[in-house]
Each structure stands twice: as C-alpha cells, then as structure tokens.
Design a protein that fits this description.
This protein has 13 helices and no strands. It is mainly α. Helix 1 (2-10) packs antiparallel against helix 2 (14-26), helix 2 (14-26) runs parallel beside helix 4 (47-64) and helix 9 packs antiparallel against helix 10. It is globular, with a radius of gyration of 21 Å.
C-alpha cells in the first residue's frame, strides 16, 4: 500500500493517497515514514492530511492498546536467544527446547501470534515473526503438532500460508529431502521434479501456483 500511496501522491490524487496512508497507520505504520518523504508534502497540506497528523498520537495509542506488546517483546527475546551459541549446539538445543515448549503454550492459550495479536514489523521495526522458531522445533513435534496447528491457523486466517510452506519445506530440506512446496530458492535443484504435485501442495495450504507466484 506504500507504493500505491506514493503513486497516488505523484499523480496528485491526494484523497486516494490519504486512504492508503490511513490504512497503513491503522495497521501500525509510523506516521514519520510518510512525513519524511517529500512525495507526500502536498498531501499533508490538505485539511484531511492535517487532521491525520493532529490525530496520530491518540490513534497510535488506541491501536497499540489493542496489541499484546508484552508477548511481542517476549517473542523478540525468544528469537534473540534462538541465535545464541551458534557454535555450541548443545546449548542451542536447550534454548530450542525451551522455545518449543513456550510456543506450544502460546498456541494453546492465545492462538497464532500474528499481526492482529502482536502487530506487524512496522510497529517497532523489529522482527517478531516466529517462523525461525518453528524451524528449530523437533521433527516429531513439528509433524504431529505444529504443522497441523498451522494448517488450522491458516484456515482461520491468522497465519500466512507461506509460514506453513516454509516450515514444511525446511523439514524436508533439513532431512536431506526435496522441498515439496517450493518456498526456498534453487527450486530447480532442491524441489521435487513433479511441478504439478508442487502446485497441488501449494494450493492445498493457500499459496498460489508456482506460475502465478512468478507473475506476482
């Protein structure tokens, strides 16, 4: 929506640009991201633009109040811990085990901690996407718990289907097998050769076909 907002501003369509800006702000984008962009100078000179600026702090506070920021911070800390002790696998395994247990608690108590619960990246410009944590769960637990749960969350609309695809493909690649969803690069070398089956697998979890993905 940022690109749409910029194009609209360049074309002099201030109202349309403000529609996109307002939608992004409502989803956590910081106002300064637009105020520092000279493309939007005239947009914020309009009455509506001025109102968005004057109402921003109150609207921002109201939006943040809808999020579980404590959980967001906890997940970010889990992700930091996940990257510790890269050359000491035994210590990493202890962290992986602890994070796995906590993820199960979160899934059972809250559901998938996506944008609607902890907010998107642009809330604080710090990654809080749990995909990396899911990739470091034990195979048996991933197969029997996390993948079925993620499928449920995808159907409910709380989880991005690409997250599910990455978790499945990572499991195959880590076990010296070929990816079956096609979420990783080097598809010609590390993906099963039956592209029709790959497309079936992708559609089953809510992803577009490989051909459509290329167009997107």
């Amino acid at each position: 929506m940022d690109k749409y907002a910029e194009v609209s501003a360049i074309l002099g369509k201030e109202e349309i640009a403000l529609d996109f800006i307002q939608k992004n702000i409502n989803q956590g984008m910081l106002l300064r991201s637009y105020l520092h962009n000279p493309v939007f100078a005239d947009v914020f000179k309009t009455d509506r633009g001025k109102k968005i600026v004057s109402d921003y702090e109150a609207d921002r506070s109201e939006y943040l109040a809808t999020l579980d920021l404590e959980l967001r911070s906890e997940i970010q800390e889990m992700m930091q811990n996940d990257q510790m002790y890269v050359e000491e696998q035994e210590k990493r395994n202890v962290i992986f085990e602890r994070n796995t247990s906590r993820l199960i608690e979160i899934f059972e108590e809250i559901g998938y901690p996506g944008n609607n619960i902890i907010g998107p990246f642009n809330v604080d410009f710090t990654n809080s996407d749990i995909t990396i944590l899911l990739m470091h769960t034990p195979d048996s637990i991933r197969i029997n718990y996390f993948i079925p749960k993620l499928k449920q969350f995808v159907k409910e609309g709380s989880c991005d289907p690409k997250t599910l695809g990455v978790v499945i493909d990572n499991l195959h690649l880590f076990n010296d097998e070929l990816q079956i969803i096609g979420t990783y690069e080097n598809k010609e070398h590390n993906m099963i050769s039956d592209k029709d089956q790959v497309n079936i697998n992708r559609l089953e979890i809510g992803l577009p076909t490989l051909e459509m993905q290329e167009k997107l």
